[in-house]
C-alpha cells in the first residue's frame, strides 16, 4: 500500500497542481485513486499523453468526514439510469447505505478523463472497474481501521459503513470516523478481490431511478435551463443545404431591429439578443444567395444510388468453402434489404451555454462526450486543457446523436465574439438538418439449406451499414461476411453526416439476417423457433429464444383461425447481451395498416444491476423501435432535408404502444453487460416476420408503410404464409404479472401509419 501525500512531486506541474487543488477543495476526508497504472507514475504523465493511453483513471472516490461517499466519473446520465445503477454498485461493494453515495459526473475539471458515454459500455466496461475500485477502497479502510482498533484485518467485518471486530461490536469505527480530521490520498498496488456477485443484496434489486422525481417535477436541470448574468440567446443563420457556399448576404433587416446584434466571422453568421424570441425573429430577416453542386439523389432513388456506388471492401469473416457450398444446398435464397436514413430526434435538441472569463472558457453542453468536446475546443481556439472546462448536466436523450458536439463550438465562438455568455439551443429544424443520421444501407444475402433444413451457406454483403451485429450467429459451415465502405474519392454516397444511432448498424443487420432466416424456415416447412434452435449452438441465444417463447405462450406449428393475424420472431446480440423477441400483429388486408398487439422480449445481460432500470430500458427500446419499423425515414433531396418537425417525421406515439412483456434472465454469476440498446435490434425483423405469417407477404425494406405492406400483399398473390401462428385461444401472460399491482390495458386504437 502506498500513501500519496500532497507534497509528492509530479512530472507534470499542471496536472499535479490541478489534482492537489481539487483535493484541497474537497475538504477533509479520504481520497482513493484507482487505475491500472501506478498512481504516482500516472500522475507524472502529462494530461495530453494520458489521453492517448488505452486505459486511464475511470473514477476516484472521496469519503467525507460525514461518511458521504462521492464517486467522480466522466460518464454522463442521459436517461439510461447509470446515475442510480453506478451508485448501487458502489454502495454494494463498499457496504454503505445507498443514500450515502453521491455521483459526480461529466465535469472535465472535477472528473477524470473518460472517452464518452455510448455503446452500452458504462455498466459493462466501467462497472467492473468501479466494483474493483470500491473493493480496493474497502480494503484500504479496513487496513486503516485495523491500525486504529489494534485488530487484525481478517478479524474485521463491514456493515452499513461501520467496521467492527467479528463478535465484538464494541470494537468498531465508522467510515466517517476514519475520515474525520484526515486529509489523505491513498492507493493500493495489490488489487483485492471483488465480492462474489451471487452474494450481492443491493445489486440486483429493482430500484426507482434516484433522479426520476426531479425529472418529472421539473427540478432537474438540463443545459437549456441554465441562466447566467448578461446571457444572450443566439440563432445561427444556416445555409439551405449541406454543401452550399455563400455567394452574398444582406444583413440589414436583422441589423435594423432593436435589441438584436448581428455577429459575423466569414460565412459564420448569427444574431444574438437577451430575448430569445427576438433572436428567432431576427434570423429570418437575413437574406442570402448560395451556390452548390447538388448530389443527384433523394429518398426515392436512394437505394439505386447506393447500388451504383464504388466501395472499399474487406472480408470480416470467412469459413468453409464458398465455391462448393451451393452444391451442398437443396434450396438457395438471394435477397436484398434496404434501410433508410434515420434521425435521432431526442426531446432535447443540441444545446450549449458558453462563457469566457479572460482566456478561461467554460461550456455547459448536452453532449455524450464532455472530454471529446474539451479536446475539440482546445484545438479550435488554440488554447490548453487547463483553460477549458466542459460541464454536462442531465441530457434529454442522445441515442448516439450527441456523440458530436458542434453546438458547443458554435456557442463558444459566439460568446467570444459577443464578449458575453451565449446560450445556443438548436431549433427542431436545425436538429433534423444538422444532426448526424443513422446511415442508409443495403445488405445483400445469399444463403442455402440442405434437405434436412440445415443452413449450409451464408454469403453476407454489407453496404454502408457497418459490421455491428453482422456475425452469422448460427452454426453455418460455409460463411463469408464482406463489408463495403464508402469511397468518397470515387463515389460520395452520403449527402450529409452520418453517425451512430441506438445500437448502431445492428438494427440493419438484425433485420436482414433474421428476415433471411425466416425465409429459409418457411421454405423448409419448419416452425421458425424450431428452425432457429436446430441451427444454433450458442447456449445463451438458445436460452433467450426458449425464455421468450415461454413468456409469450408460443405454440409451434399451429395456425391462426383468422387471416391477417400472425406472429414473428427474431433474435440477436448487442453490447454483450443476447436478446430474442416475439411480436403479434394484425394486418388490415384492405388498407395495409398494421397493429402490433404484443411484443415479448427476453434478455440475457449477465448480472443485472437494477432490474427496474433495465425494464425501463427494454420497454423504451421496444417503443422506439416502432418508429424505425413503421414510420421513420428521412425525406430529402440532395443536401436538403425536407423533414422539419414531427409533423412529417413521425416518432412513436403513446397510442402505438402494444402490450410489452419482458424477461430479464437471472445470470448473477456473470459479469454485467449492456442493457440500453439490445432490445431495439430485433423489433423490425420480428414484426416483418409476423406480417408474413399473417399475410404471406414478405417485406425487405423498413419502414413498413401501409403502401409497402399493400404492395407486398399484392406481390405475394395470397400465398400460404406457412406454419407457426399462435392460436387465438392460447393462454397468455399479462404485463401485470411482471409488475405486481400494476395493470396495463391494451391500446384500443389501431396504429395509423
Question: From the 3D coordinates, which CATH architecture of the largest domain would you assign?
Answer: 2-Layer Sandwich
Using only C-alpha atoms, the radius of gyration works out to 28 Å
Distance between the termini: 64 Å
Strand order of the largest sheet: 12-13-10-20-17-18-19
Mean pLDDT across every amino acid position: 88
Structure, explained:
- The chain has 753 residues and is an alpha+beta fold.
- The chain has three domains: 2-211, Aldehyde Oxidoreductase, domain 4, CATH 3.30.365; 223-292 and 350-425, Aldehyde oxidase/xanthine dehydrogenase, molybdopterin binding domain (Aldehyde Oxidoreductase, domain 4, 2-Layer Sandwich), CATH 3.30.365.10; 504-737, 2-Layer Sandwich (Aldehyde Oxidoreductase, domain 4), CATH 3.30.365.10.
- It is 28% helix and 24% strand.
- Strands 12-13-10-20-17-18-19 form a seven-stranded mixed β-sheet, with helices on both faces. A six-stranded mixed β-sheet has the order 1-9-2-3-4-5. Strands 15-23-22-21-16 form a five-stranded mixed β-sheet.
Brief summary of the model shown:
The protein is α+β, with helices and mostly antiparallel strands. It is built from 19 helices and 29 strands. Helix 4 packs parallel to helix 5, helix 14 packs parallel to helix 18 and helix 17 packs across helix 18.
Task: Record keyword descriptors for this entry.
753 residues, alpha+beta, Aldehyde Oxidoreductase, domain 4, 3 domains, seven-stranded mixed beta sheet, six-stranded mixed beta sheet, 19 helices, 28% helix, disordered N terminus
Amino acid at each position: 500500500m502506498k500513501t500519496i501525500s500532497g507534497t509528492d512531486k509530479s512530472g507534470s506541474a499542471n496536472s499535479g497542481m490541478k489534482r492537489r487543488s481539487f483535493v484541497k477543495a474537497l475538504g477533509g476526508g479520504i481520497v482513493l485513486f484507482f487505475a491500472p497504472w501506478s498512481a504516482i507514475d500516472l500522475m507524472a504523465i502529462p494530461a495530453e499523453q494520458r489521453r492517448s493511453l488505452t486505459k486511464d483513471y475511470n473514477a476516484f472516490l472521496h469519503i467525507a468526514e460525514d461518511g458521504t461517499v462521492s464517486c467522480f466519473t466522466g460518464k454522463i446520465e442521459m436517461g439510461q439510469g447509470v446515475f442510480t445503477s453506478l451508485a448501487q454498485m458502489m454502495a454494494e461493494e463498499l457496504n454503505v447505505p445507498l443514500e450515502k453515495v453521491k455521483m459526480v459526473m461529466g465535469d472535465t475539471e472535477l472528473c477524470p478523463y473518460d472517452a464518452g458515454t455510448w455503446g452500452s459500455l458504462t455498466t459493462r466496461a466501467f462497472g467492473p472497474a468501479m466494483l474493483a475500485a470500491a473493493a480496493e477502497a474497502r480494503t484500504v479502510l479496513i487496513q486503516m481501521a485495523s491500525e486504529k482498533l489494534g485488530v487484525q484485518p481478517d478479524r474485521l467485518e463491514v456493515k452499513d459503513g461501520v467496521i467492527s471486530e467479528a463478535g465484538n461490536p464494541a470494537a468498531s469505527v465508522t467510515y466517517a470516523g476514519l475520515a474525520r480530521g484526515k486529509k489523505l490520498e491513498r492507493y493500493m498496488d495489490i488489487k483485492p478481490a471483488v465480492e462474489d456477485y451471487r452474494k450481492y443484496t443491493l445489486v440486483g434489486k429493482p430500484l426507482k431511478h434516484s433522479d426520476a422525481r426531479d425529472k418529472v417535477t421539473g427540478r432537474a436541470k438540463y443545459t437549456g435551463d441554465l441562466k447566467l448574468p448578461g446571457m444572450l440567446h443566439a440563432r445561427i443563420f444556416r445555409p439551405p443545404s449541406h454543401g452550399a457556399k455563400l455567394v452574398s448576404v444582406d444583413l440589414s433587416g436583422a441589423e435594423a431591429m432593436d435589441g438584436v446584434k448581428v455577429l459575423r466571422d466569414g460565412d459564420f453568421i448569427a444574431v444574438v439578443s437577451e430575448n430569445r424570441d427576438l433572436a428567432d425573429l431576427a434570423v429570418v430577416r437575413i437574406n442570402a444567395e448560395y451556390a452548390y453542386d447538388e448530389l443527384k439523389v433523394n429518398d426515392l432513388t436512394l437505394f439505386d444510388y447506393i447500388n451504383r456506388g464504388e466501395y472499399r471492401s474487406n472480408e470480416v469473416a470467412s469459413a468453409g468453402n464458398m465455391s462448393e457450398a451451393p452444391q451442398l444446398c437443396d434450396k438457395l435464397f438471394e435477397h436484398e434489404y434496404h434501410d433508410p436514413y434515420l434521425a435521432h430526434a431526442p426531446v432535447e435538441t443540441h444545446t450549449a451555454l458558453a462563457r469566457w472569463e479572460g482566456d478561461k472558457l467554460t461550456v455547459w453542453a448536452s453532449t455524450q462526450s464532455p472530454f471529446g468536446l474539451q479536446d475539440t475546443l482546445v484545438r479550435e481556439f488554440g488554447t490548453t486543457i487547463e483553460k477549458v472546462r466542459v460541464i454536462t448536466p442531465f441530457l434529454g436523450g442522445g441515442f448516439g446523436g450527441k456523440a458530436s458536439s458542434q453546438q458547443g463550438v458554435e456557442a463558444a465562438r459566439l460568446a467570444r465574439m459577443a464578449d458575453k455568455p451565449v446560450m445556443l439551443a438548436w431549433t427542431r429544424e436545425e436538429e433534423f438538418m444538422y444532426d448526424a443520421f443513422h446511415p442508409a444501407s443495403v445488405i445483400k444475402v445469399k444463403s442455402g439449406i440442405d434437405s434436412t433444413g440445415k443452413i449450409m451457406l451464408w454469403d453476407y454483403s454489407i453496404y454502408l451499414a457497418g459490421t455491428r451485429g453482422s456475425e452469422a450467429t448460427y452454426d453455418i459451415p460455409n460463411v463469408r461476411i464482406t463489408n463495403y465502405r464508402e469511397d468518397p474519392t470515387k463515389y460520395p454516397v452520403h449527402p450529409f453526416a452520418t453517425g451512430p444511432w441506438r445500437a448502431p448498424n445492428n438494427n440493419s443487420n438484425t433485420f436482414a439476417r433474421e428476415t433471411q432466416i425466416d425465409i429459409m424456415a418457411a421454405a423448409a416447412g419448419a416452425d421458425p423457433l424450431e428452425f432457429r434452435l436446430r441451427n444454433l449452438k450458442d447456449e445463451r441465444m438458445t436460452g433467450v429464444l426458449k425464455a421468450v417463447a415461454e413468456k409469450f405462450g408460443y405454440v409451434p406449428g399451429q395456425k391462426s383461425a383468422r387471416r391477417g393475424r400472425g406472429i414473428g420472431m427474431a433474435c440477436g446480440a448487442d453490447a454483450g447481451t443476447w436478446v430474442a423477441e416475439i411480436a403479434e400483429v394484425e394486418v388490415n388486408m384492405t388498407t395495409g395498416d398494421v397493429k402490433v398487439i404484443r411484443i415479448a422480449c427476453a434478455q440475457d445481460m449477465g448480472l443485472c444491476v437494477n432490474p427496474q432500470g433495465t425494464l425501463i430500458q427494454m420497454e423504451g427500446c421496444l417503443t422506439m423501435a416502432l418508429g424505425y419499423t413503421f414510420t421513420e425515414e428521412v425525406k430529402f433531396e440532395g443536401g436538403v432535408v425536407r423533414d422539419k418537425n414531427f409533423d412529417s417525421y413521425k416518432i412513436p406515439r403513446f397510442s402505438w404502444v402494444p402490450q410489452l412483456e419482458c424477461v430479464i434472465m437471472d445470470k448473477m454469476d456473470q459479469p454485467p453487460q449492456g442493457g440500453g440498446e439490445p432490445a431495439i435490434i430485433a423489433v423490425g425483423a420480428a414484426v416483418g416476420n409476423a406480417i408474413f405469417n399473417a399475410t404471406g407477404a414478405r417485406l425487405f425494406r423498413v419502414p413498413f408503410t401501409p403502401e409497402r405492406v399493400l404492395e407486398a400483399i399484392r406481390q405475394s398473390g395470397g400465398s400460404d404464409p406457412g406454419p407457426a401462428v399462435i392460436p387465438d385461444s392460447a393462454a397468455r401472460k399479462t404485463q401485470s404479472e411482471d409488475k405486481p399491482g400494476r395493470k396495463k390495458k391494451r391500446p384500443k386504437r389501431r396504429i395509423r401509419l
